[in-house]
Specification:
This protein has 361 residues and is of the alpha/beta class. The strands form 3 sheets. The chain has a 7-stranded mixed β-sheet with strand order 1-6-5-4-7-8-9, with helices on both faces. A 4-stranded antiparallel β-sheet has the order 10-13-11-12, with helices on one face. Strands 2-3 form a two-stranded antiparallel sheet. Helix content is 45%, strand content 17%. It starts with 7 loop residues before the first helix and ends in a 13-residue tail after the last strand. Helix 2 crosses helix 3 and helix 10 runs antiparallel to helix 11.
Length: 361
């Protein structure tokens, strides 16, 4: 297998950012420009209201320059007062003007300062909130699923898992493209921006505590490097990877992948089957689309099925997984069923398996 120095995935990561970042699912908030516009409008209203108050009581103010206070002087006084500059050239000298300053102008000054400082405070508060969310997310994330590469293959695999009951909170997307991660977080998934061949990026995704890892990169050599790194960080996780060329599948298995899907060959076989029998191709397509029509699922044997023949179960059993051996339904060794067996069955999408749900192991 050819191993070029840098693939497209690594190059894009190097160009876009120097370090990886974790992005949690987005919350619905107002646009920043809209928030700033509202603040500026509110500040302007406070300023104009202060100008109006000073202008109404202009007789109670004294200007050291000419002794009179006109509209421009009212605007000037309101500006320096709200900004707490206070040059002292225009001052309230009557009791009514001083009372108005205490009861109205001073509260308006405080409100004006809150508006101006509010943006900075909000940014600091938002950063603190994000840091708290990130720390809480890291501390609670266990037995999750890490999807490396969120293109067509990664997205389709994740949709299949979500159709079987996987929660979005238990998924972390790793991709070098910030746009891809933004789309993932908009859909409710947590994301890590970075090159998945680097161990520090996978550690940010808490891969060492993951239960399942899906490798759906665009290149086979990248998939091999990711599988090696992932297996080094997590010895017990189930790793499923996709490759384009069938000749690279053995190398990926040696790198630590538990299951390898050859995307190009699988699509070609499905095309050939559809040519020979369009209906058989339709059934196969239905089987691999979770949530509609027929679904193929893996589940444990329940107590009531122990000792029975494979054909005597309520579900249509295709194969029996006994230890690390996969036995066909017609294999004499498959019956009787044992409590430690797992069944590969075909069920209706609306039908809940007799075990009470689809097991994600």
């Amino acid at each position: 297998m050819k191993l070029p120095g840098h693939d497209a995935m690594a190059r894009e990561a190097d160009e876009q950012l120097a370090v990886s970042r974790v992005k949690l699912p987005k919350r619905v908030v107002e646009r920043p420009l809209l928030q700033v516009g509202k603040r500026l409008l509110l500040a302007l209203v406070v300023l104009l209201l202060t100008v109006f108050i000073v202008w109404l009581d202009r007789g109670g103010y004294h200007d050291n320059a000419d002794g009179k206070v006109d509209f421009l002087d009212s605007f000037y006084y309101a500006t320096v007062t709200l900004s707490t500059t206070g040059y002292g050239d225009i001052v309230p000298h009557s009791d009514s003007a001083r009372l108005v300053n205490v009861l109205l102008v001073t509260p308006l000054r405080v409100l004006f300062l809150i508006i101006l400082v509010g943006t900075t405070l909000e940014v600091l508060t938002e950063r603190t909130r994000d840091e708290w969310r990130l720390n809480r997310w890291r501390s609670t994330l266990r037995d999750h699923t890490v999807v490396i590469g969120f293109g067509t293959k990664g997205r389709s695999a994740l949709l299949t898992l979500c159709a079987t009951g996987l929660k979005k909170e238990q998924v972390v997307i790793v991709d070098p493209s910030s746009k891809v991660i933004e789309a993932a977080t908009a859909d409710g998934f947590a994301g890590v921006i970075g090159d998945a061949t680097r161990s520090d990026v996978l550690i940010r995704a808490e891969l060492q505590r993951a239960r399942q890892i899906i490798i759906a990169t665009q290149r086979d050599d990248t998939a091999v490097l990711v599988a090696l790194t992932a297996r080094q960080l997590n010895r017990g996780a189930k790793i499923v990877a996709a490759v384009r060329e069938e000749e690279n599948a053995p190398l990926l298995r040696q790198s630590g992948a538990d299951a390898v899907i050859t995307s190009a060959s699988a699509a070609g076989r499905l095309l050939g089957l559809s040519v020979l029998s369009p209906y058989a191709g339709t059934v196969m397509e239905d089987l691999i689309q979770q949530g509609s029509g027929l679904d193929i699922v893996e589940r444990p044997v329940i107590k009531s099925e122990v000792g029975k023949n494979v054909r005597d179960t309520d579900d249509l059993v295709v194969s029996v997984l006994r230890g690390h051996r996969l036995l066909g339904y017609d294999d004499p060794k498959a019956s009787p069923l044992q409590l430690t067996d797992r069944l590969i069955t075909i069920v209706r999408a609306s039908h809940t398996p007799s075990s009470g749900g689809v097991d994600q192991r």
